[in-house]
Amino acid sequence: MMAAFALAHLSDPHLPPLPAARLRDLVGKRALGYLNWTRNRHKYQRREVLDALVSDMHGQALDHIAITGDFVNLALEAEFEPARAWLEAVGSPDRVSIVPGNHDAYVGATRHRFAETFGNYLDGDDAADDSGAFPFLRRRGPIALIGVSSAVPTPPLMATGWLGRSQLDALDRLLRRLSTEQLFRVLLIHHPLRSDSRAKRLTDSGELRALLKQHGVQLILHGHDHIHSTMWIDGPGGAIPAIGVPSASALAHGRYPAAAYNLFAIERDGDAWRCQQTVRGIDAQLRVRQLSQTRLI
Questions:
Q1: Closest C-alpha among 136, 124, 140 to residue 189
Q2: Alpha-carbon dihedral angle through residues 105, 242, 288, 63, given to the nearest 10 degrees
Q3: Which of 68, 270, 279, 285 could form a disulfide linkage to 223, CB 3.0–4.6 angstroms apart?
Q4: Over the stretch 159-169, which tens digit does the pLDDT of each residue have?
């Protein structure tokens, strides 16, 4: 049996604090988002929480880190460079893989900024790939990290996601190619594959789930809902675990738990894979502790 590959997953840092906004930037959807931030979200999206979580994560013996979106809040121009600086402190592009969330593409005017800012964290293994193109493939040891983008600008009060036909077709070809290799395939996406909320769902999740039922992956990692979540998606050889995680900067509030991240220990055992999930989360004193440990596969 080979040594376990250690993969950490966090999501939705919603990097605080929000920079000063110019009045001309606060129109349409951003106006509502800014009101929500100043009245509510600034109270529980805290930089000291995010820093404590990342510090604990850096204390683990990690091989790779996955972050599934919502780095920024209103996709203001002034948010992207601080987010890039924060990400560089988390890890280098060869050790960290990311996908965007809906807040990273909050409005059409700056939807291009995510790929421009974080490009080499999105680069696939194939040098011919366009930087920032989805899906991307990154091989790390026995792991195949497959990143897709569900981030699209939406009307006010909506936070839906969408992959689109061209991305789904490219993912179909990629999964078909990977099916012949002995790799632990991890799909990174911001939106969960099932949702009870019409305003927050992945609108073409049915098409994505059909692809996964045909070709399969071993693990799906997502964010968006800001809660601990495990759902099971049909695959060709059995159910696939799809794991969500709370916001990485959040204090506990309402039905939303405090910030946490997941650690996955992945190893080959004969002809099968083993994957163990460890959840580490923050308490009221900003201490990070182990919350649970689960054998997924």
A1: 136
A2: -90
A3: 68
A4: 999 999 999 99
